Amino acid sequence: MDYKRFTLKNGLKVVVSPMPNLESATLTVWVKTGSRFEDARTNGISHFLEHMVFKGSKKRPTAKEIAEVVDSIGAETNAGTSKDWTNFYIKAHAGHLEKAFDVLSDMILNPILKEEEIEREKGVIIEELAMYEDTPMIRIGDIFEQLIFDKTPLGRDIGGTPNTVKNIMQDDFIRYRKRYYYAENMLLTVAGKVKRNKVVRLAEKYFGELKKGGLEGKETKIKGGQKGSQLKLHSKKKEQAHFILGFRGNPRGYKGRFAEAILSVILGGGMSSRLFTEVRERRGLAYAVKTETQRYQDTGYMGTYAGVDVVRVDEAIKVVLDQHYGLADGRYPISSPELTKAKEYLKGHMALALEDTKGVNEFFGESELFLKKIETPEEVFKAVDKVTIEDVLFEAKKLFVPKKLNLAIIGPYENSERFEKLIK
């Protein structure tokens, strides 16, 4: 896949990915900040600001006016906040690319941040937090990261808490924007039926006035590893138990990341994976079971999620743990066909994601923000193909050790001793 990379005079980076066979284009604006950059008092401000840019800007002072201009070109727009990035996008017919630049730049660079809108939106966000609390399939991820990253900023929830959200004021947004929303800390990615020269012109026109340099950002590095297995029980009366069993792992750019990715697919990627077969098909313990890898700049983990019958949760945990350790110690060896299938699964899912302009922006965006060099899809496919069974086993033996084990559970349980016995 072709891409062009350039930098504006003010230091803003732009990555363009022409996809001439499509009729659409997506413009995504990235900011290299998220909840891990926040202090404890303003936890949730990155996500809160994501909401506020849609509430009114200099050219379009109300949320209705922003929505109307987006609807008038048949476009879609949204945003997302993670622990270390925030992004905003508009996906539209390629003929409306300049309108997308106009709308998105005004929203991000000139939000009004009215005090009455801030107060009103607090209620919306607090309801959003309540919705996540009542959705254990989503909430378990937060509980797991609270466990594995403890009292560090990575252990805080992206949305904050009702108390921190209530206490965020207009001045907090202004200070936060000065600290992080500046040219060298931001990135534009554009994918679709676009030409480089036009994107350069529009980027200069709509983002050329973005100021250089902000205040020095605060990012607490996560140092060291675990000293032993850990458990966190979130007691909640539910008809189903939800858990993530995971191992402290490696950061972005880790040299063995492709072997790790294949390892996670073999364990719990897809309906023919080992865990799906053992947990769901053979024992009927869960409807959903999957293994995923999460990476940050300085740390990461591999975790397996399952939603299970509350009575049979112990059995499910034992099976999941046995599959991890059994793969690492050689009791459940990897076959050549299994390795090949995992590679094709990875490449296939990536290829499907790259058919969408938004997915292309996500692929190039995170690479440009966090890695020393952008890897093309073709380079990733080649790296995946080179992985051997020995490479996968090396990562499994390194990762699946008791002192790196973490177990987070949501369910109607009061006593954690039964679970502690399973992981010790």
UniProtKB/TrEMBL annotation:
InterPro entries: Metalloenz_LuxS/M16, MPP/UQCRC_Complex, Pept_M16_N, Pept_M16_Zn_BS, Peptidase_M16_C. This is Peptidase M16. PANTHER family: METALLOPROTEASE (PTHR11851), MITOCHONDRIAL-PROCESSING PEPTIDASE SUBUNIT ALPHA (PTHR11851:SF49). It comes from Candidatus Woesebacteria bacterium RIFCSPHIGHO2_12_FULL_46_16. Belongs to the peptidase M16 family. It holds the Pfam family Peptidase_M16. One of its GO terms (molecular function) is metalloendopeptidase activity. It comes from the Bacteria. Residues 14-160 form the Peptidase M16 N-terminal domain. Residues 170-344 form the Peptidase M16 C-terminal domain. GO terms for biological process: proteolysis.
